[in-house]
Design brief:
By secondary structure, the protein is an alpha+beta fold. It has 2 domains: 101 residues, no CATH class; 96 residues, Immunoglobulin-like, CATH 2.60.40. The chain has 5 helices and 9 strands, in the order αααααβββββββββ. Strands 2-9-8-5-6 form a 5-stranded antiparallel sheet, with no helix packed on it. A hairpin with an 8-residue loop joins strand 8 and strand 9. Helix 2 runs parallel beside helix 5 and helix 4 packs across helix 5. The relative contact order is 0.15.
Length: 221
């Protein structure tokens, strides 16, 4: 997965271990974690924080817990950035953010959801329509929440944005995500869509605002 996508997903990790994601965020993060060992490592760092917070006893609290100062995140992040460098800052900043968010939740408790990490081989699909100069391969896998998609694409113009979608029998489409073309560089991605494979007929890629499929593969005969 691209580093930009990791940066978009990692702020959700703290809320994930606290059980505070909505259904859309939960599906997107689960799909990302399936193919991203770096974010799974971040999640392992955050999980002990949630486990420790679960030991809090609300019955022993005699008055409402104070909220952290508004400047606390900037103070923590600034100090970490100066002393440990940008990469270490991001890792510990996520732990601090999860702990700060949990202060207001201690009295109400939280639910820690389990995660199943797998490297799905999936079912390969064959593209029957490809734009000139474009090569692509894909695998799809039926999941409890919908369909997981592994997609590799080479040859789409660099810098262009492209949408990945599944098409229903009635011709309507459900978006699975987007990516930026890499020219001669292969772009590999793990995507998720809340549509069961049994309800989809086609996997496709197109440019935003253009219904024409640049890549198209049937999912069933």
């Amino acid at each position: 997965m691209t580093s930009d996508h990791c940066l978009q997903m990692r702020p959700l990790l703290g809320m994930y271990v606290l059980g505070r994601l909505d259904d859309r965020e939960f599906v997107a993060l689960r799909a990302h974690l399936d193919g991203c060992p770096d974010c799974r490592s971040e999640l392992r760092d955050l999980s002990p924080v949630a486990a420790a917070l679960s030991e809090a006893d609300p019955d022993r609290l005699t008055e409402p817990l104070p909220l952290p100062p508004a400047a606390l995140p900037d103070t923590i992040f600034g100090a970490l950035d100066r002393e440990r460098g940008r990469q270490r800052y991001r890792r510990i900043g996520l732990v601090a953010a999860a702990a700060s968010a949990a202060i207001g939740l201690a009295a109400g408790g939280f639910v820690l959801r389990g995660i199943t990490v797998s490297g799905p081989p999936g079912q390969p699909v064959a593209f029957t329509a490809l734009s000139p100069g474009v090569a692509a391969s894909a695998r799809v896998e039926n999941r409890a929440w919908g369909t997981g998609i592994s997609l590799d694409v080479t040859g789409l113009p660099q810098g262009g944005t492209y949408n990945v979608w599944l098409q229903r029998p009635d011709g309507s489409r459900m978006n699975a995500g987007s990516f930026i073309g890499g020219g001669d560089r292969t772009m590999s991605m793990q995507l998720a869509v809340g549509l069961p494979m049994s309800d989809a007929t086609t996997l496709g890629v197109s440019a935003p605002g253009d219904d024409r499929a640049l890549l198209q593969a049937p999912l069933r005969s």
